[in-house]
Amino acid sequence: MIATPTMPLEAATPAHICPFDQACSYLEAAAKELRLDQGVLEILSHPRKVVTVSIPVKLDNGEIRVLAGHRVQHSDILGPYKGGIRYHPAVTLREVSALAMLMTWKCALLGIPYGGAKGGIAIAPENYSVGELERITRRYTSELIKDIGPSVDIPAPDMGTSAREMAWMMDTYSVNMGHAVPGVVTGKPLSVGGSLGREKATGRGTMIIVREALADQGRTLAGIRVVIQGFGNVGGAAAELLYEAGAKIIAVSTATGGVYAADGLDIPALKAYAAENHHNLLNFPHTRAISNAELLTLPCDVLIPAALENQITAENVDQVQAQIIAEAANGPITLEANRVLEARGVTVLPDILANAGGVVVSYLEWVQGLSYLFWDEERVNREMEHLMVQAYRQVIQQSQMRQVPLRLAAYTLGVGRVAQALSDRGLYP
Ligand SMILES: NC(=O)C1=CN([C@@H]2O[C@H](COP(=O)(O)OP(=O)(O)OC[C@H]3O[C@@H](n4cnc5c(N)ncnc54)[C@H](OP(=O)(O)O)[C@@H]3O)[C@@H](O)[C@H]2O)C=CC1
Ligand SMILES: O=C(O)CCC(=O)C(=O)O
User: Fold this and answer.
1) Which terminal CB of the chain, N or C, has fewer other CB atoms within 10 Å?
2) Alpha carbon of 142 to those of 58, 170, 427: distances in Å?
């Protein structure tokens, strides 16, 4: 493996599932396919900047706790750093570094003028009060004040964060600057310059990519059997939009387990049930309980992992029965499992394509904010769909031209564009 970022505050993750090593392996494969210069590969293998800050927070009971907050800026070759902020107990600097690298290729693949970044704090947000989360978010933002900005690095929501945290970040940044700076984050509430369509954008993008892949097989969304792991921002929206398009969502899950119905779930009713039951789906009428492990191996047309990394692994890949897997989550399939699926001819729609709808609408939000002109939702969705379908077509074309699987095709496009810009800018000898 080529590179690891410095890791001042954590132990290494076991090498076989190290997300940063996995990200570097995909980069290496693309570099080999593109015959990239070794020096360029070296540059692209290292995050440009790795920031870890201490976040002291006074809890509601008076206790002081100091959290570690990360922001990894992988590349700004194509434009400002861009990427979400994750609040989840499994956050590590290696994970954030891998996710930052993925953002670079994702933005390049979609043709949007951004680099890649990611941030995170290793907390379970459900264990903190709203007031504590606000204090944590504001202190984290203050500590990063010199590293973010509308033309420097633009955070957005990821797992465990939402428009609420973005509003706190925007406010903290703005107070420090002395004037309102809505462009410092995307995924904001509409009241402070957010965009219509952003909330469901990632799930909508996944639905569009699945629809296109099915169309290439002469099929439509109507009646296809879909299984979705994760029922949050991304999984929930994907489920809703696929359901509206006539797909049969036969199983979904949250962290506490899932539900299965052979004839398809009533997704609007399940969403309301989950909201009332603290994300617990169990005992939803006319369903049977299913574990997350079982869910991944159900017979279905399309499997959509929309939760965490490393869900389909060497251990369970042989039991996975889906014909198409759309990676709504970042990195849900390990390197080894990916090889097995590709060898089996399973259509794997890679994360940097399948979940790019979110960052695309973040870009549209940023553009609307910078031009002080806001669009209706129909226009936002149309512009996003155009970029998603265009990227999908380019990936298919690249895959056919190079005779490589879709993931490598997507990587060669993303990595190739960044390498070209690096060369044109003359940043290496
Ligand atoms: N938000 C965005 O715009 C984008 C997100 N992504 C990626 O999509 C994925 C999901 O993000 P997002 O939807 O925003 O996150 P959310 O926090 O909104 O939702 C995450 C969902 O995953 C569930 N979950 C957590 N742990 C597990 C587990 N071990 N097994 C099964 N389900 C689990 C959660 O369950 P519970 O409800 O019980 O907590 C929840 O339903 C991440 O990989 C993220 O990086 C990619 C592009 C953009
Ligand atoms: O909307 C964004 O800027 C970033 C979304 C994100 O974190 C991702 O695509 O993984």
Assistant:
1) C
2) 16, 11, 31
pLDDT band at 70 (very low <50, low <70, confident <90, very high): very high
The answer to whether 235 touches 252, Cβ cutoff 8 Å, is yes
Task: Confirm whether 49 is a catalytic residue.
Answer: no
Query: What is the CATH number for 282?
Result: 3.40.50.720
Query: Is 379 part of a structural domain of the chain?
Result: no
Contact 193 CB / ligand 2 (< 6 Å): no
Whether residue 338 is annotated as binding a ligand: the answer is no
The yes-or-no verdict on residue 296 having pLDDT over 90 is yes
Q: Which of 32, 49, 118, 271 is catalytic?
A: 118
Residue ranges making up the domain that contains 299: 201-354
Do the beta carbons of residue 72 and residue 97 sit within 8 Å? yes
Of 297 and 8, more confident: 297
Q: Is 385 exposed, middle or buried (0-12, 13-18, 19+ CB in 10 A)?
A: middle
- Per-residue pLDDT at 69 exceeds 60: yes
Residue 307 in domain: yes
- At 97, is the pLDDT very low, low, confident or very high (cuts 50, 70, 90)? very high
- For the record, the structure tokens of 250 come out as 């036969």
Query: Count of alpha carbons within 13 Å of 428, Cβ hemisphere only?
Result: 16
* CATH number of the domain where residue 171 is located: 3.40.50.10860
- Cα–Cα distances in angstroms (integers) from residue 294 to residues 72, 184, 259, 276, 304, in the given order: 34, 41, 11, 25, 14
Q: Is residue 296 part of a domain?
A: yes
- Among the candidates 329, 354, 379, a domain finishes at 354
Q: Which atom of ligand 2 is nearest to the CA of 84?
A: 7
User: Binning pLDDT at 50, 70 and 90, where does residue 184 land?
Assistant: very high
Atom of ligand 2 nearest to the CA of 114: 3
**Does residue 264 line the site of ligand 1, with CB under 6 A?**
no
- Tell me, yes or no, whether 238 and 285 share the same domain: yes
Asked if the structure places residue 330 within a domain, the reply is yes
Q: Which of 354, 379, 396 is the last residue of a domain?
A: 354
* Alpha-carbon distance values, 164 to 19, 235, 418 (Å): 28, 19, 32
For residue 256, list its beta bridge partners: none
- Give the mean pLDDT of the chain: 95
Number of domains in the chain: 2
Ligand 1 centre distance from Cα of residue 134 (Å):
20
Q: Would you state the pLDDT for residue 4?
A: 41
